Each structure stands twice: as structure tokens, then as C-alpha cells.
Fold each of these.
Amino acid sequence: MALVGLNGSGKSTLIKLLLRLYDPDSGVIRINGTDIREYRLSDLRANFSVYFQDMRNYCFSLRDNLTIADNGRENVDEAAVAALNDSHCGDILRKAGNGLDTSLTRFFDPDGIELSGGQHQKLALARAFFRRHTALILDEPSSNLDPRAEHEIFQSLQTLTQGKMTIFTSHRLSNVFLADRILVLEKGKIVEDGTQEDLLKNKQRYAELFRYQQEKYLLRKEPELKSHANSLD
Ligand SMILES: Nc1ncnc2c1ncn2[C@@H]1O[C@H](COP(=O)(O)OP(=O)(O)OP(=O)(O)O)[C@@H](O)[C@H]1O
Ligand SMILES: [Mg+2]
């Protein structure tokens, strides 16, 4: 499921409410018919692995940057490398002279590695993949990624999320094709709900947002650019 909407429409808030970082002032959130306040908090949260929009990594080893999300895993190193591969962190692993023991940042270790914004994002995604879950939540998982990295992450998600509930937000609507269902939020309310096809047919909010991005790619006003783009392999 994709959550879509303008800045401040309530997407991240909805995710935080689902995880009970806040409780709603009014209304009820139910999972399998039960008010989420009736589940033990640890049981509720154990089901979710979350990539938060304002993610942070830690001045720990690469391994600990993953295990901090789930310290009960067996075959930790194997699982850590798998998670790093799933989030296409090959460049980070290559840079890391000391493998999973390599420190992140040089704050506490002169041999530590420093990462770019996009690399930080991919490492934080690896942490979300590492944590065992029944539902995966990704809040703007590709906001700092270059076009190839974004493409690769969403390709990975197609296989990683097979048969698993996944909720994600993305302002780049070209990613939203992955979702079976799209919710459009506006001022904290769901104003549209359907498949991409339904919402494009509706010609309401989603279609408007889609059009803004689509127009950029259609290159209608630059016929010369269009012919260059067409000639690319
Ligand atoms: N902790 C908070 N306390 C009070 N208001 C908040 C808090 N966090 C966010 N808000 C407000 O709630 C509204 C919704 O914010 P939210 O972060 O859910 O938006 P969003 O849809 O995720 O936007 P974006 O696309 O920018 O990530 C905004 O008006 C924001 O200022
Ligand atoms: Mg947000």
C-alpha cells in the first residue's frame, strides 16, 4: 500500500499512529478487528520493521548498525550481508576495510568510513530489511537516491515484499506502480483510495500529482531533447 499526499498531509503521522508512537486523539486504529491499544506494545511493534523518513545511522560498526534493530537473529553476519545486498550497499561494503566490523564515521575510530547522504539511506534501509517482520513500513525510502539506486531498491522491494504487507510513501509517483492500493491523504484525511488505474481515471488529487511529474518526462516543449532521449539505449 502506498500513502501519497502533499507535504504535511499526514502520511508520517499515520505511520507513527500505527506504531503507537502517539495515540489518536479521536478514532480507533484496529488490526484484525482489535483496537491496537489492546495489544501488548512490544507484541504490536514486533510485527513491524520501519524505515523512518528522518532516519539516523549510528557511530557503531556496520554490523551493530543492523543488529540494533533486531538483536535476536541467528547467523547474524550472513543475515547482515544479505540485508546489505538487498539494499544495494555493495559500495559501502567495498569501502569498508574491516568488513562488518568497520566503524561508521571517524568520530571514535580513525579507520571508520564516512557515507554520502544516499549511502546513509541505503544503510538505514538495510537495517529495516534486517529486522524480522510481518509488515514493512518505508517512509520515503528513496528520497536521497540516485536514479539507478532508486530503480534497484524498488526492484528489490518487488521480491522482498512478496506475500508481506508493505506500506510505503513516496513523492516520486513512478514508484507507486508497485502498490496494489494507494491512499491519498489531505489534511489528515483519506481523500482517495484505489489502484493507480482507478485513481488516474478519477482525475482528482492523485491524477493531479501524477500529471506534474509526468509532464517533466514527456518533454513536450523540447522536441530536440525528446529525440535525444528516444535515441538512448
Ligand atoms: N509531533 C508532532 N506534533 C504536532 N504536529 C506534528 C507533529 N509531527 C508532524 N506534525 C504536523 O502534522 C502534519 C502532518 O505531518 P506529517 O509529518 O504526517 O506529514 P507528511 O504527510 O508525512 O509530510 P511529508 O510529505 O513532508 O513527509 C503537519 O502539519 C506537521 O506540521
Ligand atoms: Mg512524512
Amino acid sequence: MAKVYVIHENDEWVRPLRAAFEERQVPFEEWFLGTGVVDLTTSPPDGIFYNRMSASSHTRGHRYAPEHTAAVLAWLERHERPVVNGSRALRLEVSKVAQYAALEAAGVRTPRTLAAVGRDDILRAAERFPTPFITKHNRAGKGLGVRLFRELAALEAYVESDDFDPPLDGITLLQQYVEAPESTITRVEFVGGELLYAVQVDTSQGFELCPADACRVDDAFCPTAGENRAMFTIIDRFSHPLVESYARVLAAHDIQIAGVEFIVDGDGVAYTYDINTNTNYNSEAEALDGRSGMGTIATYLGQRLAGVEVSGPSETLAAAPGQG
Ligand SMILES: Nc1ncnc2c1ncn2[C@@H]1O[C@H](COP(=O)(O)OP(=O)(O)O)[C@@H](O)[C@H]1O
Ligand SMILES: [Mg+2]
């Protein structure tokens, strides 16, 4: 029987999707990648494959999960299996430089950015970079390596200290700091290449902005006396010229499901700085709004599954290439 196969490495993030599949009676199986065997002499099973690999998988002890996923996607694509967020999505997921190149190619403004490899070159790059700036990891997620520097000396001290956090792929980005007057960013969610909704995120608490419930800390609500502003608020009717541009970027890279983040400075200029092909949704914000990201994904994948043709009996079917 054909199923939806979910490729991932974080159980917590799949839980709400699992519930959404069950509710809709969509048959599915999880492929938890990180270690395992890909047998190239076999054919993948019939179904639709949804890649939810995350750039931050190494922070959960799954150092090679993206590489493992790339191998599995190459095998699936060789067998012409339908993949949602295939190898091109993965390429963007693990590289902000690739994201910015894709955005700029579609005429979407990104913050001024330099990519530096090596500690000496981070400093060399910073010498000609206007302050304030931030550093971030090229292969990131969860706000890895995001730090604000108001002067060069502070960066020098940081890069030379034991606190320096080397990026997994060796690439540190120096990036123009975009100061939003209201301390918010906007994340625009797409499912099936179409706008689902946009969510406004309060950034006054810092740079780690994973919307999944599993990432939340208890005091994620602003603790300031008398104020209880929710961190995530879904915008009722979001309409913005960037929506169409984002849809074009996603289509050009064969990405069906993603959350794209932008920030607006004091002059009203929007800068787009993050494409999350592995996206998560905030349940409190969704409860207030009524729309459901995982529900929409489950419906979309269920519809795609209905169109899958089942192959002949002659093929040797593979064992799951992960840990079940
Ligand atoms: N250029 C920037 N100017 C101001 N704030 C930024 C900038 N880039 C990132 N941030 C802040 O840091 C957070 C994490 O950065 P992001 O690029 O989204 O990395 P990640 O992929 O780790 O989520 C953003 O959501 C935003 O609040
Ligand atoms: Mg982000």
C-alpha cells in the first residue's frame, strides 16, 4: 500500500503531524534518519516522500542526518518517487548563502552579508563591514551563532575567546543588523506552494525563535509586569507583495512547504533573511486563529498520495533506510 513517508530526525516536531495524519486517516510511516543503510540495489516503496530534515539536527546529536537525507533523496529521485521538499530544498535548508542567492535571484532584498571561512577571515571581513552587525552560522536553525556586535573590538574579543562557537560547515556570516522598531519579525508560511498564513514573532526576548511547542521555554511569554504579549501571533489577512516573490522562489527550487522570515527596518524596508524548509507551527497561536499548519500539510500530502501510481510487483523493495 502506498503511504506518506516522513523523513526527519526529531520526534518532538513530528508529533503534531502524526496526529493530523491520524485524524484524516492518511497512511504514513516515519523514516528517522541519522544512522542506517541505504541499499541502492533496491527500489523505494510506493508513496509520497516528505523531507523534514533540519539544519540544526547536529544540536540533537544527529550529526550526519542531513548527509544521510541527501543520500536517501538521491536514491528516491533516481527512482522518480514524488518528493515534497526534495534535494534542492535540503540544499537551501543547510546553507543561508544558498538561500540568499535564491532570494536575490528573484529580486528579493536580503541583508548585506559576507561569508567568512576561518577565524582570521571573520575579522578581516569585519574590518570593512559597517556596524552594527550580527554573526550567524551558514548552517543554522534555532538562531545558532546569532550575536549582535555594535563595534569591531567586541567581535575581535569574541572570535579570539573560548566562547567562539565554530559553525558546523566552517562558514560564519557577517550580516547587516536590521533594527525593527517594534522588535518583531514576520514569518510567512507556505504549504503546497501557497500561502497558509503569516505569523508575527516578538523578538524582544532574543534570537532563538523556533515556533514548535517542543522548543518553547516556560517563560516564553513576556514576563514584564502588567504585560503579557504572546510571542507568536497569526496575522488575520496577510497581504504583501513579498508573498508572490516568495512563492516564485519556492517554485524555482521545487519547495512546497516552507516558512520564510523577513524583518522591516525603521524606514519600512523589508529584508528577507531565512527560509525554513523544515517549518514548525505554534499551537497557541493556531488555537486562537483556527488555522492549522500540520493539518494543512496532512491534507495536502493526503491529496498528493491519492495521485500516486503503484509500481509493478517485480521490484525489490527496500528496507527503511533509517531507524524505523
Ligand atoms: N540581519 C538581521 N537583523 C536583525 N535581526 C536578525 C537578522 N538576522 C537574524 N535576526 C534575528 O535572529 C533570528 C534568527 O536568525 P535566522 O537567520 O532566522 O537564523 P535561524 O535559521 O537560526 O533561525 C531571527 O529570527 C531574527 O530575530
Ligand atoms: Mg529563523
